[in-house]
Each structure stands twice: as structure tokens, then as C-alpha cells.
Amino acid sequence: MPATSDHIAGAGAALVPLKAPRGVDPPTLLRSTGAVRRSFTPLVRTYGTVPYADLDPTLPAGIVYVVMFGVMFGDAGHGALLLLAGLLLRAGRPRRVAPLHGLWPFVAGAGLTSTLAGLAYGEFFGPTGVLPVLWLNPLDEPVRLLAAAVGLGAALLALAYGAGIVNRWREGGPSNALYAASGIAGGALYLGLVVSVGAGLLGHAGYAFAGAAVAATGLVLAGTGMYLATAGGPGGAAQTGIQLFDVVVRIGSNLVSFARLAAFGLTHAALGEVVWRGTTALAGAGVAALLAAVLVFAVGNALAFALEALVAGVQALRLEFYELFSRVFEAQGRPFHPWQLPVQRTEVPS
After folding, report:
1. Going by fewer Cβ within 10 Å, which terminus of the chain is more open, N or C?
2. Exposed / middle / buried, residue 46 (Cβ in 10 Å: 0-12, 13-18, 19+)
3. For the residues of 68-99, what is the DSSP string, one character each?
């Protein structure tokens, strides 16, 4: 500020500080330093502009995205190709895709997580037997993979509620954080339902009742906040009831939605197995059959790579936006555009 004031003083101008009027949020100015952050920024900006007071979710959102992508695209061979593509983008090769250079951490991260998931599944361009199964074979243990996917989704939803609580507090203070469906009330409802259902399935009645009590507390808090936002009376009570029902249903549907991590991981493994079986069925029956086997292996993996990369990318984006960002975001910010004083230079003839 002093430097600016001194700079314009020579032109006979003065800098007058003015306080921002109440009720007007300052424009958002999120950091865009670092290759990784810049690579993940489009993921958040596609959904909306982060309000000035909120947490910057860029890095966590990018990490979560590539992890979910890797779970669905779990093949060490395909992941290595993605990782190689990311490194080529970093090097600016080929030149025709040089404008995408900034996305190299995003692509490389997706390739790395896919490779790690492929190592866990024992998949290398399909079930070729090149790698041992370090964790599970998706086609042999689909229920276990499904449970792991839902468990991962439950943890991610809990983190999203945590970020939502911080954001609601920063946006409107403790009361806003307490009663918001994406704040403490919603978090308590979610946590209580998860504990109650989980404990009930495991046969722990005490924990189930405790979870139900926490869920009921969250339901009351959320209902109070919703009712206070209405005009009151019977109409307000009916509106609050509908909204509470929607919140409970969405918690269940959002949690179950993470099962798609396992479903598309199974699809990827199934496509790899189809290609590998076709390859082995042709191999060993002469030179022509061997060439046909190589062709089937190459073309089949290329099609599986292209199809599954597209599907995994879209599904990871859907989970990020609908299940996670819907709890982190409640308000929209305004993009920051720095104001510049237009300066006209006039040449004075000597």
C-alpha cells in the first residue's frame, strides 16, 4: 500500500483505504503456485469458485480423484502407460500436445495410483501372471473389493463433512456450523447412521444404540436449522420434514454410490481377462495364429485402455462432485480479477 501511494502521488493522486461493506464477500484469490496445484485447479474450478473464507480443497481434491481413478483403473501395465504419458507431457513431447504440459502431474498421478492398484490386484495388461496378487484378485473376491470400496467412500465422506464443518464456521460462525446439513448437524447424522448400521450388522447392540442417539441428535439439529429458515407454521414443518427425509436418503445413496469403485474395477479386470483368454487361445497353433494372438492382445488392450480410462475418469469426477463437493461447498465465491489503473502514455515532442 505505501509503495502504491508513493507511486501515484507524483501524478497528484492519493490512495484512500476503504473498508469492505458488510454482507459483501471479498473476491476469491486461491494460490496457484506449484505444478501440482496448477494441474489440479481445473478440477475444482469446473465445479465452482471457492469462497474467500473457505478452505482451499485443490490439493486434497486432486489426490482423492487420482486415488479413485486408480482403484477403478487398476492395472500395472495400463498405469505404467499413463505414468509414461505424464512424464512425456512434462518433457513437452510430442510438441502438438505441448499446451497440455501443465496437466502432467494429474496424468502422472493417475498412472501411479493405477499402477499401485494393479500391483495389489496382480494385473499387468490383464491377468497375465507376470505379477503376483498382493492383496486380492477382483474377479475372485468381488465382495471383499466391494466392502473395501464402500469403506473408502465412508472415510472420504467423513473427511468431506469435516471440511464442510470448517467452511460453515468460517462462512457464518458457530451457529451456522452447528445447524447446517453439511455442518455439525449433518456430520453427526452421518456418523451416527454409519455407527448404528455397522454395529447392528456386527451384533454390537450397545454401539448401535449409541450411534442411533448421535444420529437423532444430528437430525434434531438439522431440522431446527431448516425450520428456522422457513416461514414457520404447518407449511414450514412439512417443508422441514421433506428436507430431512432427503438428507437421510442422500446419505445412504451417496455411501452406496462408492460401490462403483469396485464395480468398474471389476469391469476393467473382466475386460483384461477376456483379452488374455483370447490371446492364449490363439497362441501356440502356428505362426499365423501367434501373429493373430499378438494382434488380439495389442488391439484388445488398446480398446480396454481407452474405454476404461474414459469411464474411470468420468466416474471419479462424478463421485468427487456429487458425493464430496456437495458437502464441502455451500456458497459460491467470485473469481479474483485484479483492478488495474489504465495509464495512457503521451510522447511530448522536444
Report:
1. C
2. exposed
3. HHHHHT--HHHHHHHHHHHHHHHTT-SGGGGG
The alpha-helical segments, DSSP class H, found in 180-286 are 184-202, 205-228, 233-257, 259-282
| Residue 172: all three cell numbers together | 457464518
Show the cell assigned to 12: 497528484
Beta bridge partner(s), residue 28: 335
Distance separating alpha carbons of residues 242 and 247, to the nearest angstrom: 9
Range 30-39 contact pairs with CB under 8 angstroms and sequence separation of 24 or more: 30/56, 30/58, 31/56, 35/102, 35/104, 35/105, 36/62, 36/105, 38/102, 39/102, 39/103, 39/104, 39/105, 39/106
- The DSSP bridge partners found for residue 335 are 28
CB 79 within 8 A of CB 109: no
Query: Which DSSP letter does residue 332 get?
Result: -
Distant-in-sequence, close-in-space partners of 186: CB < 8 Å, separation ≥ 6: 161, 164, 180, 218, 222, 247, 327
C-alpha cell at 186: 449433518
In 3D space, the residue among 291, 273, 271 whose CA is nearest the CA of residue 283 turns out to be 291
The angle that helices 205-228 and 142-179 make with each other, rounded to 10 degrees, is 40
pLDDT of the chain, 350 residues: tens digit per residue: 677 777 777 777 888 877 766 656 677 766 666 788 888 988 998 998 888 889 989 999 999 999 999 999 999 999 999 999 999 999 888 888 878 888 899 999 999 999 999 999 999 999 999 999 999 999 999 999 999 999 999 999 999 999 999 999 998 899 999 999 999 999 999 999 999 999 998 889 999 999 999 999 999 999 999 999 898 899 999 999 999 999 999 999 999 999 999 999 999 999 999 999 999 988 766 788 889 999 999 999 999 999 999 999 999 999 999 999 999 998 888 887 777 777 777 776 76
pTM over cut 0.85 = yes
* CA 90 – CA 47 distance, rounded (Å): 26
Q: Between vectors from CA 259 to CA 299 and to CA 143, what angle results, nearest 5°?
A: 85
